[in-house]
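Re: [help] complex structure
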Amino acid sequence: MALLEINNLHARIEEQNILKGVDLTVGAGEVHAIMGPNGSGKSTFAAVLAGREEFEVTDGDVLYEGNDLLDMEPDERALEGVFLAFQYPVELPGVSMNNFLRQALNQQREHRGEEPLPAGAFLKRMRECAALVSLDPQLMSRSVNDGFSGGEKKRNEIFQLAMLEPRLAILDETDSGLDIDALRIVADGVNALRRSDRSFVVITHYQRLLNYIVPDVVHVMADGRIVRSGDKSLALELEEKGYDWIREEAVAA
Amino acid sequence: MPTTETEFLHEVAASEYKYGWETNVEADTIPKGLDEEVIRLISAKKEEPRWLLEWRLRAWRHWEKLAANPSEAYPRWPHLTYTEPDFRNITYYSSPSKKPRYESLDEVDPKLLETFERLGIPLAEQEKLAGVAVDVVLDSVSVHTTFKEELAELGIIFCSFGDAVQEHPELVQKYMGSVVPYTDNFYAALNAAVFSDGSFCYIPKGVRCPMELSTYFRINQAGTGQFERTLIIAEEGSYVSYLEGCTAPMRDENQLHAAVVEIVAEANAEVKYSTIQNWYPGDNEGRGGVYNFVTKRGICKGDRAKISWTQLETGSAITWKYPSVILKGDGSVGEFYSVAFTKGQQQADTGTKMVHVGKNTKSTIISKGISGGRSNNSYRGLVKINKGAERARNFSQCDSMLLGDRCGAHTFPYIEIKNPSAQVEHEATTSKIGEDQLFYCFQRGIGEEAAIKLIVNGFCKEILAKLPMEFAVEAQKLLDIELEGSVG
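Output below.
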């Protein structure tokens, strides 16, 4: 059974149709890249999977570990192991990283019927995960994303991914706004977190991230659908030719 | 299970008050109503000296005059809508028992002790707990004072107002009404006429009070107005941190609460006054609930004196309260840190007045208002820089957070500057609790209720951090309880 099975997914915001029949199957341990021009629906796709309420699913279905994902509340999805690395991480003034993550982690453990992590073990794990993305441990006593630099925010997302150990991690343009060094750190972090029981959906506009995070499958999204899938060489082809030829094909189809 | 965050917020805002019960303690209550006889009766019951009775009567006559012309005297300027209390239908004195004094805890009515235990403040434990002396005012008469002897060794006086009148009349006579005269306002006049008890605190010159002084107030008698008076005097170079915390049982008719707090800080003295206010706010239709009309004011009398007000206001149907500081001494400092949370049909009009008189005086105002349900939450503040107040400085920050879309947040800042060397800054923000912030929490597996608690606590954090440690924990617990909804 595939970890994630999406059939004919349609979604809209207000009166505007954005997703117009997405089909995607992601197996356990696989890394899928979703590329596509701006406005093709990539970020909407990520938001719909995470359960953002503004988007209304009008058709199609999503099976996650065989269960109806669309039937779950956003927090329930998270507790079931769906993680979204945000394109624009949100600031929570006055809420310390420490407190935030402890709550998140303990809710997850409670959901699985486990005891809360003892303080010592929690701190140890925080230090280990922070080191994975070279995140300054001092940031843990600061408010969530408050005053973080752009790069720190993105690394913070991968740090949280490491802490929460999801089975499905969706990275929404995690590479945008990162310089090459930061990009490497983020990619190395992700690579270190690859496991046979963890799948990744990596959404990106540019091919360069895929030099570091090598995908099993590359999909191209255009006008709310996946119009082409292939291996990693597809990404290189896109880099060379741009998106126009794909878009033309999509319109023609 | 609610389907949207907004619905959830409405549910939270509609959740009922959790401290509603009534203690059945035998009470000594005088009949309802207000006239000169009632005032004489209160004074006689308390065996007061003649000068105090006369002071009460002067206040009473002043109030009568004001009451005769309510359109001018009655404070109508706040952003509040309510029916004025019927002053003839209030009981102005109620003592928890016919027996006026207790020598030990064993003598205290066990039901009373149980009440405090349900509030999480068992007296028996309080005594053992490090550093907190409690002067309990249940209704009107002090029933127990702890740590009094330990404090007495340092020359600190911490007792009920009634005891202070008996044992230290010269101090009471000297300072009572010196910061808030009975002519100050309608409710200050009423309080001066009928006040029943309260707390008194005197810190001698150069003494640093080694423990937090705390008082818990409850309104416990049906239809009883509570009119406490608190007087804190900090002599030169002294320091005291004073805590006041309140909860009240559920009640059908409105209860009037009109307290007066006066603080005098001499040169180099520092007074920190912290409040948690959680009186019954009324039910979801706005029935019942406490009317909280309080006059709190401190004066930095000497140079470099400092007065700090920190408050967490979550209760009462109507709150009308402006803890203020008169900065008379050169280089004196006034601070006001406030979190006001309203939900259901609550209305709060609260803020501060900072009156700069001396040179190089400095004031800081940080106010956080959180409104839910159909409540209305207003900040009203005055920063006044007098002519002689050279190089006075003020910083004000007022932030409002809206939970849901049926509540209101308002800011009314007043600034009067008569000296051109003044530096005054004012910042204000209003935001709806962020959908983005909530979603970010959900996505990490944190549910709606926990997410709202996290975000609201974060919003208030810098204020709650100003509270003394044990009080801060209680404050956060209270905020969490207040935010709890009926999510299944």
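Chain B touches chain A through 25 residues (CB under 8 Å).
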